[in-house]
């Protein structure tokens, strides 16, 4: 399967898609799960509350955001796979993080949740036929393909793990 073209997703997401290496996207998801888990396992409960600047998310909030976003993006992909042409709502990530109160949660269960969500995402994409990858759907009035959703999911995690390594650790 080829990479998505820039016509398969809104321009805003290109910064994520461009971080994804060439190759089988499901294998890349699996590899990313392993590397992300290894990175997250270096962080203890105390460190998980760290913020690199005032007003920025803590590590717990960043991980909670990754969990929420992967759920939302996978759900959108599922709707597109099932040929649902409903224009799906966007999400306000800051409101999600604020409402979730991730800093009041334990870090270990958040890490476990990340692993389970990613395994579910892998299962969603693992056995799709060629036609499913090219199905389109809508969110916030913008058009996406299923293929682009897979790349956005991986690229979004890449983006935030890079920030985690550069600014938090």
Textual characterization of the structure:
By secondary structure, the chain is mainly alpha-helical. It has a single domain, classed as dinb family like domain (Four Helix Bundle (Hemerythrin (Met), subunit A)), CATH 1.20.120.450. The chain is 58% helix and 6% strand. It is built from 7 helices and 3 strands. It has helices spanning 14-17, 25-40, 59-81, 93-100, 107-126, 130-133, 146-168, and strands spanning 87-88, 136-139, 142-145. The protein has a 3-stranded mixed beta sheet. β2 (136-139) and β3 (142-145) form a beta hairpin. α2 (25-40) runs parallel beside α7 and α3 (59-81) packs antiparallel against α7 (146-168). It is globular and about 45 Å long.
Q: Helix content range of the residues, please?
A: 55-70%
Shape: globular
Q: Superfamily at the CATH H level?
A: dinb family like domain
Distance between the termini: 35 Å
Return residue spans where pLDDT drops below 50 for at least 5 consecutive residues.
none
From the coordinates shown, what is the CATH architecture? Up-down Bundle
Please outline the major beta sheet.
3 strands, mixed
Domain module count: 1
Average pLDDT confidence is 98
Note the main attributes of this structure.
58% helix, single chain, 169 residues, Four Helix Bundle (Hemerythrin (Met), subunit A), mainly alpha, three-stranded mixed β-sheet
Brief synopsis:
The chain has helices at 14-17, 25-40, 59-81, 93-100, 107-126, 130-133, 146-168; strands at 87-88, 136-139, 142-145. It has 169 residues and is mainly α. The chain is globular, with a radius of gyration of 16 Å.
């Amino acid at each position: 399967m080829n990479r998505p073209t820039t016509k398969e997703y809104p321009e805003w997401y290109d910064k994520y898609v461009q971080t994804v290496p060439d190759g089988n996207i499901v294998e890349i998801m699996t590899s990313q799960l392993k590397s992300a888990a290894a990175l997250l396992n270096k962080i203890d409960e105390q460190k998980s509350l760290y913020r690199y600047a005032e007003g920025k998310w803590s590590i717990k909030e960043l991980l909670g955001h990754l969990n929420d976003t992967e759920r939302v993006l996978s759900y959108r992909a599922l709707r597109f796979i099932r040929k649902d042409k409903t224009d799906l709502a966007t999400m306000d990530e800051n409101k999600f993080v604020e409402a979730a109160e991730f800093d009041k949660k334990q870090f270990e269960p958040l890490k476990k949740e990340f692993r389970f969500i990613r395994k579910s995402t892998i299962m969603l994409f693992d056995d799709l036929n060629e036609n499913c990858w090219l199905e389109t759907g809508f969110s916030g009035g913008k058009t996406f393909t299923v293929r682009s959703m897979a790349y956005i999911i991986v690229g979004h995690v890449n983006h935030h793990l890079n920030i985690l390594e550069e600014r938090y650790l």
